[in-house]
Amino acid sequence: MKQLWSARFMRLFCTLTWLASSAMIPSAIAQETTAGSSQSSTEISVPHLIRFSGLLHASAANQTTGLTFTLYKDQTGGAPLWVETQNVLPDASGRYTVLLGTSHAEGIPAELFSDLEAHWLGVQVVGEQELVIPRVQLVSVPYALKAGDASTIGGHPLSDFVLSNGGSSGSSGSGNSGGTGSTNTVMPLGTIGSGNLNAMAKYDGSGNILGSTVVFDTGTALGVGTGNPGSFVEIDPPSTAQTIKFGVVPWGLRFGALQAGQQFIGMGVGKAAADNFYVANSNNDAPVGHAAIELNFDGSINFRQQAHQPDGTVLSMPTTMSLTPAGTIGMGTTTPESFLEVDTPTTAQTIKLGSVAWGLRFGQLQAGQQFMAMGVSKTGADNNYIAKTNNTAAVAHSILEFNFDGTIDFRQQAHQPDGTVLTLPTTLAMTPSGNLGVGTAAPGQKLSVAGVVESTTGGFKFPDGTLQTSAAGSTSGGLVSSITAGAGLASSPNPITSTGTMQVNFTTSGGDDGSAVTVARGDHLHDARYVQLAPQGFAYSNSSVSGHYAFSEVGTYASGGYLYPVSGNGTFQADGNGNISGTLVEYESGGSCQDNITGTYSVGSSGQGTLTITVSPITVGCSSYSSTFNLSVTQQGASAVFAESDLAGWVSGSVLRQ
C-alpha cells in the first residue's frame, strides 16, 4: 500500500470550481413601485460546497478509497481549520471528483473565508501520511461563500423587512429651506405598538412588536424593572413579594428584600407576599434546609438558618450569628454586649473548644452557675454534669464553677463511664468574704481544711509571731507548763494554791471510773493513770467531729442461725457538717472484703449521738449493707467510741483523729 501511494507513482491534479457560477452569487430582483405597489424578491440559496478533482495512481483505479481533506491557514504546519473524510471511486485512469462539504449538514462554513486570508487544502489517504506534494492554495472563488450573507440583514432575509416612509421638516444643507424631505428606513414587518423610552421591544410569535419589556438600555447602563438604573446593571423587582433567582433548582440562590427594608441573599427560601416573612421553597427535598444572609439598613448583618420545613411554611429562621456596625459579633444573639458574645439557646447546650470529646467546655446550670469544664457535658436544661470522655479511662472530670453569689468552686471526680451523672465533690472553694475551703464548700474561717494539714518545711506561724515546727506532745498526754491566774489561782511559780481546785476527766482505762472528779492539792492519781484536761462546760456539736479519722471494730454477725466473728479497720473523712466518707477492710471467717463507706452522724452537746453508715463492696462477691451505731465523742472530737447491738449480732469499736 505504501508503494501504491508513494510520490513516485502519484500525481494529483486539483481543480476548484463552483457547481454553477450562477448558483454561487446571490441574486435578488427587487422592484420598487409607487404607492400601493408591493415589493418582491427572488433569492437563490448559495450552496456551501466546493468541487475538487484529483488523480490517483492507476493501480487504485476502480477501487473505493478513503481520503481525508483538511483546510489549513498556513502552507505548512498549523492546526486544521476544517476536516472531512469521504470515500472516492477513481475511474479507470485513477481520476476522481468529490464535493467538499457534503458530509456536513451546513457544508463548508462561510465563516472560514470571512477573514480574507489565504487557505490551503491538504489530502491524506486514510491510514497513511499526507501526500508529499505541497498543500494546494485556494484561490478567490471559494471566498464567494461569504457573499451568501449579502442576502440577509442581521441574519434576517430581506422578506422580513419593508421600507417605511418617514418625513421630517426643516432646513437642509441642500437648500431646501422649509421644505419637506423623506427618508426610507428599513423596519421589520408586523404591527408596531407603543413603547417606553430606552425600553427593549416585546415581540409576539408572529414578529409583531407588542410594546416594551421590563429591560431598559440607556446606552451606558442596563436596567431591569427600572428605566433609570443607578449602576451599570440594576434590577428592581416591582415589590418585595418577588425575588431574583439563580439556578434551575427550586432552592437556588435568591436575592430580595423584606417590607421592613432588609436586603437578603437566601437559599431554600422564597417570598409569597410583600411582607417580612420568608417562605420555605425546596420542592419538599428533605435534605435541603433554609439559610439567609440578611443585610439591615442600620449596617448590621444577620445569618439566619432553620432546618428543613415543608414548602409554603412561614419560616422562623433564628439568627445564628450577627455582626453589628460597632464591630461586635453575636452568636445566638443579635445584640452582643461585648466584642464576642455567645448565647446558647438552653442550659442543655455548651460551648466546646478542641476536637477531642473531653475538650474544654463553657456552659451553665439551670440554677445559674456558670462553669468551665473538661471531661463533662450537658444533656438537659438541669443542674447535672454528665461524663463525656469517649470512654477514655485516663481522662477524669474537673470543673471550675462560678456561682451567682460570688463563690468559686473547684470540683473534681475520677473517671466515670460516658453518660454517668457526676457527683463532683468540691475540692477547693473560695467565698466572696475571702474564706478558703479545702475539702469543704462552706469554709467558716480564712482557711478551713476538711482533713490533715501538713507542713513539710517551716512549720506554722501564729499571730504572736511565734513559730511552731513540732507538736509539744502526743495525744496520750503532755506537760502543763503554766496556768493563767484566775479565781482561786495564783501566779507563777506556784500556779495552784492550797485553796484552788481543778476539774479533770480520768481516762476510762485506769482504776478510776473515768467520771469527772475534783482533785485537791496533794492528791494522786490511782495506778499512775494520766488525765486529759478539757475546758469546763465544753459543748459538743457536729462541727466537733471534723477531719481525718482512723478506726477499728470487732464483733459478730448472724448467718444461718449462727454467730460469726468479724473484725475490721479503716479510715474516713468527716466534714464537720454531719457527713463522712471513707474505706473499710473487714475480716470474716470466709476471707476479707474491701468496701467504700458513706454515712451521716449527729452529735449532741454532751458528746452523745448516732452514726449511720452504708457499706458498698469493692471486692467482688461481697455484700452491701447499712448499720446504725450509738456514738460517744470525747476529747473535743479527737476520739470516739461506737457500738451496735441487734438481733443480727453486735459490733463496737473506737475512733481516733489522725
By DSSP (H or I, 4+ residues per run), the number of helices equals 0
Low-confidence stretches: 1-43, 164-187, 473-482, 487-492, 497-534
Strand fraction equals 35-45%
The CATH level-2 architecture of the largest domain is identified as Sandwich
Number of DSSP E strands: 47
How far apart are the termini?
Answer: 113 Å
**CATH classification, class level of the largest domain:** Mainly Beta
What does this structure look like?
By secondary structure, the protein is mostly beta strands. Helices cover 0% and strands 39% of the residues. The strands form twelve sheets. The chain has an eight-stranded mixed beta sheet, with no helix packed on it. It has an eight-stranded mixed beta sheet with strand order 25-26-27-30-31-32-33-34, with no helix packed on it. The protein has an eight-stranded antiparallel beta barrel with strand order 40-41-42-43-44-45-46-47. It is elongated, with a radius of gyration of 54 Å.
Descriptive labels:
658 residues, mainly beta, Immunoglobulin-like, 6 domains, eight-stranded mixed beta sheet
Summarize, please:
Helix content is 0%, strand content 39%.
Could you outline the blueprint of secondary structure elements for this entry?
Elements: E1 50-55, E2 65-72, E3 80-88, E4 95-100, E5 120-125, E6 136-137, E7 152-153, E8 156-157, E9 161-169, E10 180-188, E11 199-203, E12 209-217, E13 222-224, E14 233-235, E15 244-245, E16 254-257, E17 263-267, E18 269-270, E19 279-280, E20 290-295, E21 301-306, E22 319-323, E23 329-331, E24 340-342, E25 351-352, E26 361-364, E27 370-374, E28 376-377, E29 386-387, E30 397-402, E31 408-413, E32 426-430, E33 436-438, E34 447-449, E35 460-461, E36 467-468, E37 502-506, E38 516-519, E39 531-532, E40 546-559, E41 562-575, E42 579-588, E43 591-603, E44 608-617, E45 625-634, E46 639-646, E47 649-657
Parallel strand pairs: 13-14, 23-24, 33-34
Antiparallel strand pairs: 1-4, 2-3, 2-5, 5-6, 7-8, 9-10, 11-12, 12-13, 15-16, 16-17, 17-20, 18-19, 20-21, 21-22, 22-23, 25-26, 26-27, 27-30, 28-29, 30-31, 31-32, 32-33, 35-36, 37-38, 37-39, 40-41, 40-47, 41-42, 42-43, 43-44, 44-45, 45-46, 46-47
